[in-house]
Design goal:
- It contains 6 helices and 7 strands; from the N terminus they run H-H-H-E-H-E-E-H-E-E-H-E-E.
- The chain has helices spanning about 1-45, 60-130, 140-170, 180-190, 205-220, 275-285, and strands at about 175-180, 195, 200-205, 230-235, 240-245, 290-295, 300-305.
Length: about 325
């Protein structure tokens, strides 16, 4: 699909460029002919009264016109070749972000479909089995409904996560003056977290920043290992840190931790869909900030959010 689109886009580039080139070539050719005629007329006007008439040799005029036309033809041929190569290259550069976006969308749809398919399959199977059971008791029906409700809740949670991810990526939220220390305090809530919160005022959306910190804290507790020790710090200059002392992140997982639906082998046994850190990064990007990770396997991780560009002035 994109190869055909690239060729079409290149063709349109060539049509536009050659139309402009030919137009100016005609102007140049016309100007050269007029100049030849002007020279001939000037010779007529400047000759002495008794001098013989000197006229430019018609063969020289024709040869000059031919040379001008040939030069313009060669020039247009060179422009055509150069434009074809350049146009094909530029068309590729133009379509690359679109192709990347389409690939991401395909991957997103495939991953979302997979995540929805699991609870839907479980739900469908349980209901079908129950409908075939003519001796289904009330207690068994209640147990079945409870299991079905769990599957529905899983799908609802996934759906809400996808909607939040889309919301933050679209950037359709209001900004105001926000203190990161207050945001972190709200996100910590009743969690047993060590905190060192210094006032740091930024321009942002309070609800989304609270969700950002909550995601990082939840992530820290999930992978905190046996210690379950989590520390949250805010510093002046729009800096927020969330540290755990758990299993850490392996080098092979580092490039993918912010990808949608990505889950490392170590996280397979925990709840979630691999959307938390992706949502967190979308929130940080929305605020024009950066999120980075410093991690050592078996020793823990430090997630650092830098919102220096969003500082309140």
């Amino acid at each position: 699909m994109f190869k055909e689109a690239r060729i079409k886009l290149t063709a349109w580039y060539l049509v536009i460029i050659m139309a402009i080139s030919i137009f100016f070539s005609l102007i140049i050719y016309r100007g050269a002919i007029l100049e030849l005629n002007r020279i001939e007329n000037m010779q007529r006007l400047r000759r002495p009264a008794n001098a013989p008439v000197v006229i430019i040799d018609p063969d020289i005029v024709r040869e000059t016109k031919s040379r001008i036309a040939l030069s313009l033809f060669v020039l247009n041929a060179v422009i055509l070749g150069f434009s074809g190569i350049s146009g094909y290259f530029l068309a590729g550069k133009t379509l690359d972000p679109i192709a990347e976006m389409v690939d991401e969308q395909k991957e997103f749809v495939a991953n979302a479909s997979h995540e929805f398919r699991t609870p839907l399959t479980s739900l469908k199977t349980e209901i079908e089995v129950a409908l075939r059971d003519k001796k289904l008791t009330l207690s068994e029906a209640k147990k079945l409904l409870g299991s079905n409700l769990e599957d529905v809740e899983r799908m609802t949670k996934l759906s809400n996560s996808l909607l939040r991810l889309n919301k933050f990526q679209n950037g359709d939220i209001p900004f105001a003056k926000v203190d990161l220390a207050w945001v972190a305090k709200r996100a910590i809530g009743k969690n047993k977290v060590k905190s060192d919160l210094k006032r740091s005022v930024v321009t942002g959306n309070e609800d989304s920043l609270i969700e950002l910190v909550a995601i990082l804290i939840d992530n820290a507790f999930k992978y905190g290992g046996r210690t379950k020790s989590v520390e949250v710090r805010t510093k002046s200059g729009g800096i927020l840190e969330v540290e755990d002392h758990g299993i850490g992140i392996s080098a092979s997982d580092f490039p993918h931790i912010f990808d949608r639906f990505y889950r490392s082998d170590k996280s397979r046994g925990t709840d979630g869909y691999g959307l938390g850190l992706s949502i967190a990064k979308s929130i940080v990007d929305l605020h024009g900030g950066k999120i980075s990770v410093l991690s050592t396997p078996t020793k823990g991780s430090i997630f650092t959010v830098n919102l220096r560009s969003a500082l309140w002035s």
